[in-house]
Amino acid sequence: RMKINSTHVLYFTLSAFLDTDMLSYFFFFILLVLYVLIIGSNVLLIVVICVNRSLHEPMFLFLCSLFVNELYGSLGLFPFLLVQILSDVHIIPAPLCLLQIFCIYTYGSVEFANLAVMSYDRYVAICRPLQYHSLMTARRITFLISITWLPPLFCVGFTVFLSSSLQLCGNVINKVYCDNHSIIKLACNDPTANNIYELIMAFLTVCVPVSVILYTYLRILQVCFSGSEQTRQKAVSTCTPHLASVINFSFGVSFEILQSRFNMDTVPGLLRTIFPLYYLTCQPLFNPVLYGLNMSRIRSMCKKLLLRK
Questions:
Q1: What angle do CA 151, 117, 144 make, to 5 degrees?
Q2: What family does the database annotate (predicted)?
């Protein structure tokens, strides 16, 4: 196969798009409505948290960071996907492909880190309530939000840089969006270094936050079993939406990792197209709806804001 440096690849072809003919307009409309709902719900909750001083507490500030990340992740997928659905030729310029990889991978990394920080906040609130305000100071909140965003941006940026320097022997990606591992599989030379780095980054950005989440919930369960009824009610009311968000996102990411690493030819083509999009399309809408409906303070503030308008 002829070797071409990825910096000289003008575009990548996305081969997973199905030939839907007139249904393309239907899918375009569905995705457009979904994108508008994602923007509207997340922006609404961000505004509610920012303008109401009574919500300027650690839990709500971490939620605000989570909603900003939902907007960021959907921005890396939906505009491009909407254009591609109505296109006859599904190609993407190489720089935009690398930019999309950066956006999607940082979104996933920040999401796990944010959920881990939120689980730590719930652990302190439930297991060490008397020390909560002394531990969750403004400086610590700033630090926790910083480590939620800055390390993923740096790690994913270096991942994209390594991929951009690969010599490629093709430009066809069997997906509906750009994926780093798909580009690595196009490499002419042995991409062992890229695979090892990608696995290390996956461990740091997925396994470490998930370990923090599991540890904090084990401690919360211990306190719930040995604590009062009031403690159990507080744990259920504040931890249920967070736990549902973790499970939902982990399910979507797990399928994406399995599809990238293993042969999924036995899975129907439509499912192979839809499932990788699950965590990128459903999570940004799932979180604001979940927290907006389940947290009474946010729900009441949203009603006041909408009635005022």
A1: 55
A2: Belongs to the G-protein coupled receptor 1 family.
Strands 4-5 and 167-168 turn out to be: antiparallel
Is residue 191 included in any domain, yes or no? yes
Confirm whether 4 is domain-assigned: no
pLDDT at res. 142: 94
Query: CB neighbours (10 Å) of residue 246?
Result: 22
pTM above 0.70, yes or no: yes
Please, are residues 126 and 242 in contact by the beta-carbon 8 Å criterion? no
Between the CA of residue 308 and those of 64, 78, 304, what are the distances in Å?
A: 22, 31, 6
| Two tokens, residue 272 | 């192979």
Q: Domain count of the chain? A: 1
Within a domain: residue 2? no
- The confidence score (pLDDT) of residue 1 equals 45
Residue 67 is part of a domain; what is its CATH number?
Answer: 1.20.1070.10
Phi, psi of 173 (to 5 degrees): -110, 125
Task: Domain of residue 158: give its range.
Answer: 11-307
